[in-house]
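If you are new to this repository, start here. Below is one unmodified record pulled from the training split, so you can see the exact layout before writing a loader.
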Amino acid sequence: MVLIFGTQLQAQTQPPQQVLSAMEKCRVQVISQLSFGDKMKMKAAMGAIQSNPRFIAANNAVADATTPQAQIEARKAFAKLKLNLLAQQDPSLQPVIEKIREAQAAVLN
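And here is the target side for that same chain:
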């Protein structure tokens, strides 16, 4: 069990929407603590990867997931791919990406 945002979360027993929401909150929390320059680099990198065929396919897999568990698995795969693509697009974002990964892993484990 992990303490995040003042609540205890256990991914295996939480409703899918709660797990997905917790993942997003982790990402937003890390990004909110970035400098303006890092936020702009993150935004530019996101813009650059959105036309990547793998990004598009993973995003579509999230939208096409038919069960709550499939949605969580697709969202986890999409989040991992997105962070990998961001790191490839702008290697200077690696410290930020690692913080996001650590925060999300804490929620999912």
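Two things worth knowing about this chain: Residues 1 and 10 are 5 Å apart (CA to CA). The first strand starts at residue 2 and ends at 4.
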